Write the structure tokens for this entry.
Amino acid sequence: MATLAEVLEARTAHAAPELVEPISKGRVRCYACGHECPIPEGAYGVCRVRYVRDGVLHVPWGYVGGVQCDPIEKKPFFHAHPGALAFSFGMLGCDLHCSYCQNWVTSQALRDPQAVAPPIDADPGVLVREAVRLGARVVVSTYNEPLITSEWAVEIFKHARRDGLMTAYVSNGNGTPRVLEYIRPWIDLYKVDLKSFDDKHYRQLGGRIEPILHTIRALHEMGVWVEIVTLLIPGFNDDPDELQRLTAFLASVSVNIPWHVTAFHKDYRMSDPENTTPEMLMHAADIGRRNGLRYVYAGNLPGRVGDLEHTRCHNCQALLVERYGYFIQGYKITSEGTCPDCGAAIPGRWGASFDGQIASTPFLPGSRRLRTL
Ligand code: SF4
């Protein structure tokens, strides 16, 4: 029986020229993520999905690891078309190996024999037509790390833009200047999972903090709409001093960047820390607010975090978007994207009106249609 790696080798294309460079005889450098792997002939990069054969960098193509329809609040984006349906696809593999990953079946499929996630052959046009049929407003590359499969995401995003949809990455942010320039023409929204503000912690997860901070700043300067999530893990990244430095950094990029601090629950290989409590989230949120961040949210514990699920005007505190979990209970932003009470411009990507909500919980596209993707 073929191994998963062999199955995936049959589903590849050549890397985009922007994301690869020959460095010596038989070796090329990949620029799809911050590892910038120098890859010799016949070898894989750290992500184990991009490899060199006959001097050519081969990259994932032509399949999905999964497709799901999510409320956009689940990604989470709170300042981009609240209530919209986000047609979400992933591939397989990741450039980090976080022991608490909540998508480990797809992200660690190449590293962990227990993470069995077979690929499903897919066509970009069919995927996007299905997104349109279901009423999605955004197509999102998520579940595995999208940067390492950027060629395939861009191909799907070209179809999405043609059909009037927005596009997004849900990513660890371990980018390079080259990959950000490569996706720039095709991306509207970008969520970065800022896991810590300590390089030692990032090295434990298999990365470095510097490329992630560069990605956040660069995306903001490019005009891509950015929201940040920090999964608060007791004993790992909840030190007040670390949260102080993390939120001060975000505020130095822009006080308008929404920061979501979300609750950890025991998962995958990290089962030692206790689950995050509402009080821990609220304390972290307080640090973010004191550092000047205007939009701070607490996630994963609906109804237990006071006001921190809602969007309030940063200027007059009027309640603008009322939420319970992913469910939109109230919406008052004007067609100009302003506060109806004081007229302040509310940062984000807003529609002319609230278009209702197709689903406040995730669902799978029909199984028959999924097989035809
Ligand atoms: S995507 Fe990242 S980990 Fe994978 S080969 Fe390229 S630089 Fe290495």
